[in-house]
Amino acid sequence: MTNAIKLNQPVRNNWTDWRMMKDNRRRKLLVQYAPERVRAKALKKNDVLPPEITEIGAKMLADIPRDASLTRVRNRCAITSRPRGIVTRWRLSRIVWRSLADYNKLSGVQRAMW
After folding, report:
1. How far apart are CA 59 and CA 104, in angstroms?
2. What Gene3D superfamilies does this protein map onto (predicted)?
3. How much is the average pLDDT of 15-31?
4. What domains are there in the chain, each with its CATH number?
């Protein structure tokens, strides 16, 4: 019975908190609905087409989930899930980035010396 799973041990997920899970779900929806969303927006914004077709485009856009919009996606730190002060290249918050850079844990980062 040495290979049995211990039930009293905490479970570790890939997500820091529920906000990170929510953001990941929004990113998946964005990828899934992107082509359909572009088509619907093009139909809705086209002034040359008759109003009936632009209304169809508006209805198509309304049927797509709101979380599939690019403005709903938030850049978060991959370690702490902090939403502000993100260093985009590493997807880390400035605080975590600085602590990792201090100990040479990030490639391509060098301390400023003058």
Report:
1. 52
2. 1.10.287.1480
3. 90
4. 18-74 (1.10.287.1480), 75-113 (4.10.830.10)
